[in-house]
Amino acid sequence: MDAWLVSDNLWLARTAILHQLRYKGRTDPDRLFRYCLARAGHRDFFVRKAIGWALRQYAWTDPGPVREFVAAHREVLSPLSVREALKNL
After folding, report:
1. Whole-Å CA distances, 39 to 25, 31, 61, 88
2. Residue 81 burial by Cβ neighbours in a 10 Å radius (0-12, 13-18, 19+)
């Protein structure tokens, strides 16, 4: 997944961000947040949406760290990513 994250292929990068989507309590939050930050500046809608989706899904399991992450990185996350991440909080 680390190699996919830095790929020029947006679909591979998107898949890397989303790969833990259904892990719930087994999610590696450090990896999730690192991946989201690494691609936070991506211009493509689907990558920005994936960041928000992955964060929102993890927020069902552990909302505190997601709130903290978004608050700390709101300046670099796209409005779409922020909106999606906080949608159910």
Report:
1. 23, 12, 23, 22
2. buried
Rounded to a whole number of angstroms, the CA Rg of the chain reads 12
* Confidence (pTM): 0.96
pLDDT digits (tens, 9 = 90+) for 33-65: 999 999 999 999 999 999 999 999 999 999 999
Asked if 32 contacts 56 with a C-beta cutoff of 8 angstroms, the reply is: no
* Residue 84 pLDDT grade (very low, low, confident, very high; cuts 50, 70, 90): very high
Tokens of 61: 């399991």
Amino acid at the residue 19: H
Cα 4-46-52 angle, rounded to 5 deg: 90
C-alpha 64/C-alpha 87 separation (Å) is 14
User: Cα separation of 57 and 63, whole Å?
Assistant: 9
Encoded tokens for 86: 């906080």
